[in-house]
Amino acid sequence: MTAGSKFKQAIRNNKPLQLLGVLNPYMALQLQKSGFDAAYLSGGGLACFTHGIPDVGVLTMTDFTDAIYKITRVCNTPLLADCDTGFGNPEKCVQEYIKAGAAGLHIEDQTEDKRCGHLDGKSTVSTAEMVERIKQAVKGKTSGEIKDDDFMIMARTDALATEGFNAAVSRIVSYVEAGADAVFAEAMPDLEQYKRIREAIGPDVPLLANVTEYGKIDLFTSHELAEQGVDIVLYPVSLARGMHGVLENWLTEIKDTGTTQGMVDRGELRPRSEYNAVIDYDPDRDDRETVLAKLKV
User: Fold this and answer.
1) Fewer CB within 10 A of the end CB, N or C, for the chain?
2) Cα 142 from Cα 156, distance rounded (Å)
3) Cβ atoms of residues 80 and 105 within 8 Å
4) pLDDT, tens digit, for every residue of 222-255?
5) What is the DSSP letter of 181?
6) pLDDT in tens, 107-136
7) Any idea which residues carry the catalytic annotation?
8) What pTM was estimated for this model as a whole?
9) Could you give the CA distance from residue 16 to residue 223 in angstroms, rounded to a whole number?
């Protein structure tokens, strides 16, 4: 079973599929061991929390594929990854993402000087230009060294902010007709809007809602969104936000008290045995050769 087919199976098995963004392989393994059926790599998360830069289209395709490979070589959970606007070559992007082990990607209709989908000041390309991006991406499923017919090409539109809802729906329909396997309707603040998108694209095209904190929409529950026809609920940087907040508290406590004892007493700093279990490492059993044998290449 390919990574793409695993991801599509995860969507069928979950109503809806809850998709959490991860920053690194360890976080992906935690997600897998917690029972989630898929994971997500956010461009914003990768830019800010891994590279320490804003999410404004600075990262390269290689930055993404390196991060994808590090996750997929140790984690069996299918991974959907951001690819911004396709790095100028959507076909090659899909080829490289498949080679790195991704199960799918989402490509957006913003201009190259892209911004986070929940910020103001976005600009979008023409429908025709985005349709061409999608067609090139679809071609990449079977034109590369490694092929995956089930690799998911998800079309993201930011057109609600630039052209209004009706234009966004019109674009979405065009993107599906161009070959997009799924739809990412960015920053839709009204539950009814998801229902109308579902009606426009029919019952078989997976629909994703991005429920990011402090964004343009309320934190709708997965149940509320499923009732409107949403198949995938995305939490792109929720784990990263939590990590940031906890780290800030710990840094203050360590500086003020001169010890980590309080965090140990509260169970916030976990013993080595627990994270060894996450990475499936037994010091009495495993050596370099056994670890290398478990890695996917």
Assistant:
1) C
2) 22
3) yes
4) 999 999 999 999 999 999 999 999 999 999 999 9
5) S
6) 999 876 666 656 566 788 999 999 999 999
7) 40, 55, 82, 84, 106, 108, 116, 156, 186, 210
8) 0.94
9) 8
